[in-house]
Amino acid sequence: MEDKLPNKFIGSFIALVGTGIILRFLSSLVDRVFFSNSEFKIVEHEYFGIFIFVIAIGVTISWLIKTKDLRKKD
Fold first, then answer.
1. Which residues contact 35 (CB under 8 A, 6 or more apart)?
2. Can you give the pTM of this predicted structure?
3. How many CB atoms lie within 10 A of CB 63?
4. Is the pLDDT of residue 71 over 70?
5. Which residues are within 8 A (CB) of 73 and not within 5 positions of it... i.e. 6 or more apart?
6. In the list 7, 33, 60, 73, which could disulfide-bond 15, CB 3.0-4.6 Å?
């Protein structure tokens, strides 16, 4: 199993960037579907970037914890 997992730096970078991209895309989609006729936009909110960054860091940390557990089992 260890040979199929990327190293910790590469994997955490992929998790961080990938989560940010996916959350940004989903929030843009929500803006277009639910707030198309409104002046309110989630993407333009003051703390939107911080919110996405915190979630991405959480996903990255959970990825690191899960891969640590996977490496111990083999």
1. 41, 42
2. 0.69
3. 18
4. no
5. 1
6. 60
Helix (H, G, I), strand (E, B) or coil at 46: coil
For the chain, give the number of residues: 74
Sign of dihedral through CA atoms 46, 50, 10, 21?
negative
> Position of tokens 């961080």?
16
Tell me the C-alpha distance between 32 and 9, whole Å: 35
- One-letter amino acid of 57: I
**What is the rounded distance in angstroms from the CA atom of residue 69 to the CA atom of residue 27?**
32
The CA-to-CA distance between both ends of the chain, in Å, stands at 7
Confidence of residue 2 (pLDDT cuts 50, 70, 90): low
In degrees to the nearest 10, what's the CA dihedral of 38, 42, 46, 47? 160
